Amino acid sequence: MKLRELAHSRTGDKGNTSNISVIAYRTEDYTRLEAAVTVERVRHHLGALIQGEVVRYALPGLGALNFVLTRTLGGGVTRSLALDAHGKCLSSAILDLDI
User: What residue stretches are annotated with the AtuA-like ferredoxin-fold domain (predicted)?
Assistant: First the structure.
């Protein structure tokens, strides 16, 4: 099953950092997301796009996980020629994670 079947995603970009939230469609699926969508799995899934740190924040009251990925946007949205590395593309990519 792909992550997109249980959750949707929102992103934000600031400089060379991407902020990605994964939000369960149903509250009862949050525990499954928390167990399956780890820092290690996100780092492995997005691979070489992530040059810095990955930090995960759990938001159980919202049924969401928030990931902050540093050094991910090729120097920043306005400095990078790699459009695929911008946050909106990364949120789509993370939803393709097998869980």
Answer: 1-99
Residue 54 sits in a domain of what CATH number? Answer: 3.30.70
The answer to whether residue 44 is domain-embedded is yes
Q: pTM (2 decimals)?
A: 0.86
CA distance 97 to 84: 17
Judge contact between 95 and 33, C-beta under 8 A. no
Summarize pLDDT for 60-82 with one digit per residue, the tens: 999 999 999 988 876 655 555 55
Interatomic CA distance for residues 63 and 79, integer angstroms: 34
Q: Mean pLDDT over residues 9-35, rounded?
A: 92
- DSSP assignment of 71-84, as one string? S-STT-TTT-S-GG
Q: Measured between alpha carbons, how far is 59 from 96 in angstroms, rounded to an integer? A: 21
Q: Which domain holds residue 83?
A: 3-94
